[in-house]
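Bumping my old thread because nobody answered last time. Still need a sequence for this structure:
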């Protein structure tokens, strides 16, 4: 919505109802609560998804039986967390890089940016954003500030199911963040909309129903909005918000500019995993060892109190039983449990779900033989995961650069900090650190075979170095060492 909604508008807007249904479904899988899954699939329209075949929409069982017997495997949550870990377990470096800035300005701004990042808790915020984006298909980052309570502005992570966004040519041009409040009298619902558009932020409060925005009212109607200004002018053009898509395109809904969840298209596999695991646990439950006892062996507890058999009794009272009768005494019974068949089915489904989500099963510990592996070996086995990681990094880079630059602008203009806001670059870190000893072995082999230059060897050992830094290192080694007389391991001081 480029502008605030008109009184009486539908909520969510008609052009957002489908994407909000997707959000509801994926949020339920991410939450991992069986009760939420049952309610989600019970509430969606029949034309949204063929529900009659879904494990989580089965009818006929009582609520107590359903709660007891339906088991959820939280694979969706694991996928989202793994995605966040691959991206941000090793936080990226944010380096000031502005060709027009002086050295002193660069140093001052870098120090200020580092302080801002620490103040924001940005590294943890990015982990939160990474997990949310994986599950929901994308995430919003917005700037927040209040000089009464803060020393600097901060960055806040916002779930996409709390936002109504407008895109043009793939770029975010406006977004309204929606917060809902229940009135004291329980009548209807209040919605506070924080509307971001070019160069300004607008605040509006509406009183409506579950499906209708209702009528705009004064901000003072609610304590949470009473101190807000209706309009805030920004010290820059553009938005105080960015949108980071998880991946694109959104295959399910053609024409939408929102990102695609890692769960998109594999909800049925999640459902099948839960059904298979529940069946496995049912086999275990029904296959418990049992003892069959003749009726004559049971001890009566009194009128209306039933009968029992004390399996722990050390002495059994003699019973008058017809020796020629058919009673065979105490008999143990043990049913077969299809453990291997269930395990293979569950693991196969998990493997397919993880692969379809864009990750290698090895990232989840699947098919790993319990041996420790070097960083290089892991990279080879987890190539699919790292491919997905690289794609997501490219989606994150421009929005992060944008919002961190605007973070500096807010900090200097509104909080009166004394430094010059400058552009920056992002240096992504590898979630699997390089194995130095393995690199040393490779470099040693290349040296003995005379198959690589010193430049190549330095690059292999230090992949994080820039072009200029590599040249400096090569020059330093060539100046200080006689390479023809020394082993490369000695020259590079490798273990």
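Sorry it took so long. Here it is:
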């Amino acid at each position: 919505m480029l502008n605030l909604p008109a009184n009486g508008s539908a909520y969510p807007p008609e052009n957002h109802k489908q994407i909000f249904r997707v959000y509801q479904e994926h949020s339920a899988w991410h939450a991992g609560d069986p009760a939420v899954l049952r309610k989600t699939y019970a509430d969606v329209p029949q034309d949204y998804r063929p529900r009659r075949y879904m494990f989580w929409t089965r009818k006929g069982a009582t609520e107590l039986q359903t709660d007891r017997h339906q088991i959820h495997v939280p694979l969706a949550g694991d996928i989202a967390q793994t995605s966040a870990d691959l991206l941000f377990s090793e936080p990226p470096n944010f380096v000031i890089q502005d060709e027009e800035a002086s050295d002193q300005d660069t140093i001052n701004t870098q120090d200020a940016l580092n302080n801002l990042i620490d103040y924001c808790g940005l590294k943890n915020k990015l982990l939160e954003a990474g997990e949310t984006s994986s599950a929901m298909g994308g995430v919003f980052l917005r700037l927040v500030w209040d000089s009464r309570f803060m020393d600097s502005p901060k960055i806040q992570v916002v779930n996409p199911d709390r936002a109504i966004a407008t895109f043009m040519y793939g770029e975010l041009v406006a977004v309204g963040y929606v917060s809902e409040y229940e009135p004291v009298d329980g009548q209807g619902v209040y919605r506070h909309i924080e509307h971001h558009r070019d160069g300004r932020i607008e605040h509006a409060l509406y009183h409506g129903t579950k499906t209708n925005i209702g009528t705009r009212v004064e901000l003072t109607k609610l304590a949470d909005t009473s101190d807000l200004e209706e309009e805030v002018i920004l010290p820059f053009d553009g938005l105080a918000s960015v949108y980071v898509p998880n991946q694109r395109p959104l295959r399910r809904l053609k024409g939408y500019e929102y990102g695609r969840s890692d769960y998109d298209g594999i909800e049925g596999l999640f459902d099948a995993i839960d059904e298979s695991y529940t069946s496995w646990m049912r086999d275990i439950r029904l296959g418990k060892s049992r003892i069959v006892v003749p009726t004559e062996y049971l001890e009566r507890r009194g009128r209306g109190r039933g009968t029992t058999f004390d399996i722990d009794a050390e002495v059994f009272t003699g019973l008058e039983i017809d020796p020629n009768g058919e009673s065979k005494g105490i008999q143990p019974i043990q049913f077969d449990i299809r453990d291997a068949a269930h395990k293979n089915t569950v693991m196969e489904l998990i493997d397919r779900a993880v692969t379809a989500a864009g990750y290698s099963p090895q990232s989840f510990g699947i098919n790993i033989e319990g041996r420790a592996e070097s960083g290089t070996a892991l990279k080879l086995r987890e190539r699919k995961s790292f491919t997905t990681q690289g794609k997501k990094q490219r989606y994150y880079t421009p929005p992060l650069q944008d919002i961190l630059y605007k973070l500096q602008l807010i900090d200097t203009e509104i909080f009166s900090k004394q430094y010059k806001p400058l552009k920056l670059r992002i240096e992504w870190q590898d979630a699997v650190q390089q194995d130095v000893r393995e690199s040393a072995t490779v470099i040693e082999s290349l040296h003995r075979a005379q198959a690589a230059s010193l430049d190549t060897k330095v690059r292999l050992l230090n992949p994080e170095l820039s072009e200029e830094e590599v040249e400096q290192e090569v020059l330093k080694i060539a100046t200080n060492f006689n390479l023809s007389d020394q082993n490369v391991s000695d020259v590079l001081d490798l273990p």
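The chain has 14 helices and 15 strands. Let me know if any region looks off to you.
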